[in-house]
Amino acid sequence: MIGELYFEGWNGRAYLATLVDEGSEKLEVAILRGVSTERIVAEFRERTSDRLNRGILVAYAEEMLAKHVEGASFGSGHFWRRIAPILQLLDVDRRRVADCLDAHGIGDWWSAPFAIAEQLPLGWEWSQRFDIAHEVAIASSRLDEYSTWWITPERLPVTLDARTVRSGQPWLLDYYQSRPVVGSTPLDFGNAKPPVYEIASARDWAEFVDSYPYAAKSFRTYDWGYPGSAGLVIPDWAKVAKDWDGVHVSVSGYPSAAYRPLPIRHGWTVLAGWHPGATVWLRWP
Fold first, then answer.
1. Over the stretch 250-271, which tens digit does the pLDDT of each residue have?
2. CA nearest to 52, candidates 92, 88, 5, 10
3. N or C: which end of the chain has fewer CB within 10 A?
């Protein structure tokens, strides 16, 4: 089932709660008032049934996804992490909502893989054919030298799937920078068929990092909700660049994988600082 990918882990369950309640306010108020967990879950399920019956969840699925993505790393993200045990109790509702979204075709394109004819340039990088290999080398050499909010290397070209841009503005942005300028015309790659690694789920990201691991001894993660960075493994971008021109995270892959600790063979990893539907380029195609 495609739909259930949206609701995996605490981040996906937080999207479920955002969709049902149009934000976190109802759950926040209930917790502040000392309402029991059993009552909170029961009332949430009642609201879910009501909104499913009235078709509201389908109508607001994309709008609430955008709201959730904007707050996943900042603000509301801290609240969702704190109530992760409560979110885990919403499993039955997760399946019901996923069934509804799938039945109505909502999100069919969310799981779409990289499409070369639909890539819009994001930011200034595409206007200057700079030495991308040099930037990748710098990013790899500094993996243990500085703290960051994000796993993604800085100063690399990024494209967005055209369907994540509406009226000239991206509607799904993980705010690791101020709102960047997005191009209005898809890039012309000619006959190129660049190899692009596809991330469509949390499992995909874990396998990706397992394939190109870098044990981050001093890499600091600021506040993703996890103490310290012991055992954190991140992608070795220089090694990735030897095999792949780019890495694409689908819209459905983001709520599944982002901001949750994922166990891998030699520790754990996390996806952070990646726009849903974005491709980060490690080599010019």
1. 988 888 788 778 889 888 888 8
2. 92
3. N
Q: Are strands 267-269 and 169-170 parallel, antiparallel or unpaired?
A: unpaired
Whether 209 has a pLDDT exceeding 90, the answer reads: yes
Per-residue 3-state assignment (H helix, E strand, C coil) for 123-149: CCHHHCCCCHHHHHHHHHHCCCCCECC
Number of separate domains in the chain: 2
Give Dmax over CA atoms of the chain in angstroms.
Answer: 61
**pTM, two decimal places:** 0.86
- Helix, strand or coil for residue 247? strand
Structure tokens at 198: 């596809």
Domain shared by 152 and 275, yes or no: yes
pLDDT mean over 36-43: 92
State the residue range of the domain holding 101: 3-106
Domain boundary among 65, 82, 106: 106
Residue 169 is encoded by which pair of tokens? 């503005």
